[in-house]
Design brief:
Length: about 200
């Protein structure tokens, strides 16, 4: 990694080098499974310090916000199958992204319990807006997501008739127009008014 030459340009999730006593993760990178990976699209910077090299990645020009492991993201479902659903990631926390990133939510990552009983169609529908957590990056261009926490899942949905859906339990939402109920993996979102009271 200490080679002198052209700048090394990398993508989010790209493996950069071994993580060992002489190479440690710095800004714009993370360590997983004995390797250092990039969290940004940018240029690799190697900083020598006390007989070790700190591996950092700096975005060229304006910093590009990209999802990274552990982030809570807002995404919209666009395709569902029996094994997974695909979505577009639109926000990281409360920050709206300048571009959409592709995400995939697999059947086994929908719930923390009774994973073998999960049915994608009873958890999500195309058009649903969800809160999800980013799992360790395994593919450079697709982010694997999880809703296996109470606070994660569907936050906004519309029924087959186009009416806004209202949560009636953690597994069902009801159309505000027809009152027909549909199965969903509902996010246990704390209302803003309650959150303010808790923070006082």
């Amino acid at each position: 990694m200490s080679r002198v030459g052209d700048p090394l340009v990398c993508l989010p999730g790209q493996r950069l080098c071994l993580s060992d006593p002489s190479h440690v993760s710095g800004q714009g990178t993370y360590e997983r499974g004995g390797y250092i990976y990039s969290t940004l699209a940018g240029v690799v910077d190697i900083i020598p310090k006390d007989n070790i090299e700190i591996i950092e990645v700096h975005s060229s020009g304006k910093e590009t916000l990209v999802p990274s492991q552990g982030d809570i993201v807002t995404a919209q479902i666009h395709t569902i199958t029996q094994q997974f659903c695909k979505c577009y990631i639109k926000c990281i926390g409360d920050k709206v992204l300048g571009r959409q990133y592709r995400g995939i939510l697999r059947k086994e990552d929908v719930r923390a319990a009774e994973k073998d009983r999960v049915e994608i169609y009873k958890s999500f529908r195309p058009g649903d807006v969800i809160l999800a957590r980013v799992l360790p990056i395994t593919e450079a261009h697709t982010y694997q997501l999880s809703t296996a926490e109470n606070e994660l899942g569907v936050v906004t949905a519309h029924s087959e008739h186009g009416g806004l859906m209202v949560p009636v339990s953690w597994t069902e939402m009801q159309c505000s127009r027809t009152f027909v109920k549909e199965a969903r993996k509902v996010a246990r979102v704390v209302p803003e008014t309650v959150q303010k009271e808790m923070n006082k």
